[in-house]
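Researcher: Go.
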Amino acid sequence: MKQIIPFTKMHGCGNDYIYVNAIRHPIADPSAAAVRWSDRHKGIGSDGLVLIDRSPIPEADFSMRIFNADGSEAMMCGNASRCIGKYLYERGLTDKTEIRLLTLSGVKTLLLHVAQPLPTHGNVAQPLPSHQGEGVGPVTSVTVDMGEPALEDESLFVASRGAGRGTFVSMGNPHYVIFTDDIDQVAQTGRILEHHPAFPQRCNIEFARLEPDGSIRTRVWERGSGVTQACGTGACATAVAACLTRCAGRESNIVMDGGTLHIEWRESDGHVLMTGPAAFVFDGEVEMPK
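Model: Structure:
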């Protein structure tokens, strides 16, 4: 008998994933499912697969596992965690606006920014946006406490086709940030640097350029997925690298292909806070791979 799995497609600044409520629909082989379903020609199409489940530890409310389009398991994804916050709240799995999410990079705190419910006129409620229950306002944006960056050996030179010295920042997953005017080399050079010997576990590669308005235009090559519209941890790493290299202060707007994320590297405790949108795309059903 075929196993049919309900799913939800969501994106954060264009970084799109397939979300499955694994509490109700566990996936036996998520790596295989990610490869098959992420195919943009023969599958649903996405940057990967995200499983939302109960937390096995009391320190967190829910857990997240994320699998890239090539089937490899990722440590953390900021855009996906924002989408999970919106999913959990608007689908009625929680009424909390502060959610503790267990990831392979530890427990992350999500702060949901919720609009007020739409007003009623007489006994007739105004139409609510899709995916919302009665009396529930939409989650307009989510702030994720990404914790402290790891900065060991942050200054690193990786020679490859003109890519110069960059800054290594770990946000629970590894990033190499290069400030350059040629950010469009992302596909050509990012592919090479992901597998550079300096990165035995492979690496996410960011190419960033300081703009006249003070924002930072960034393009990203994600390990296991290639060029993506946005990367939450990559935006955080870029903001930290900009501060370390004195290109920016402790707050930055990171402009990626799919949208803008606001990043604050908080001085009081060294935590990085990421704020940005999350959006539903569509719901569907898909057959489990054999």
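Model: DSSP finds four helices and 20 strands in the chain.
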